[in-house]
Amino acid sequence: MTTDSTTWAIEVRGLEKSFKDLRVLRGVDLDVGQGSIVALLGTNGAGKTTLVKILATLLKGDAGTVRVHGFDVATHAAKVRESFSLTGQFAAVDEILTGRENLILVAQLRHLADPAGLADDLLDRFSLSDAAGRKASTYSGGMQRRLDIAMSLIGNPPIILLDEPTAGLDPQARLEVWQTVKDLAAGGTTVLLTTQYLEEAEQLADRIAILHEGRIIVDGTLAELKAQLPPAKVECVEKQPRLEDVFLAIVGADASETDDPYDAAAATER
Hints:
This protein is α/β, with parallel strands linked by helices. The chain is 35% helix and 24% strand. The protein has helices at residues 48-55, 77-83, 99-109, 115-125, 141-152, 171-186, 198-204, 222-226, 243-251, 261-269; strands spanning 8-19, 22-33, 37-41, 63-68, 71-72, 84-87, 159-163, 190-195, 207-212, 215-220. A hairpin with a 2-residue loop joins strand 1 (8-19) and strand 2 (22-33). The termini are far apart.
């Protein structure tokens, strides 16, 4: 593992965190390269969200060092907060406002020039222009999540932290978010993604780290992780379509773009 800090957007060394007698992080080491997508996998309670909150300066570690965009989270928290955006497990949109109004509000709060122009650019980038004037409450789950990510990109942060970004979304909405994440990385944004969906990590990540019992036990590319398994046995098996394949074939690519607010609300709740 190289120690050249210029190549890393995120550096974590020996990070520990406990809540009273519960040791959540027990010496975590993690590197995230600039412009890459790293997936952090782990079961519930493994410490994924705790790690993200420390990176986001929302929690303080008990020991170890953490640097984000070259800044130490303990000594330069303000600089760290300027360097990233955090998108949590639930879309943080104001459902009373329209999609465009949500984006303008965030741009105004960040004192950026031309909030309306920024909003229009992001609506176009995230394929939400046609729904710009609709209240966010009428958006499907996938549309709300795309709007949420668009809001987090106002100000062009070099790093985005995605904590379980597709939790509760239907298969089509999940695919929409996956494409959004790929587009972010293609544009040079660094992405740290926490997820419980193994297929999500396979589809998106340049590298995969597995957090287990408070430590990173595996860190590498998908090919490197697969190489740790015994050689596969070759068997002839008739391949059957997955349920996701059947679902998407039946409902079509535009299934999540519903105009029915009740269907949209139900999709959001799932």
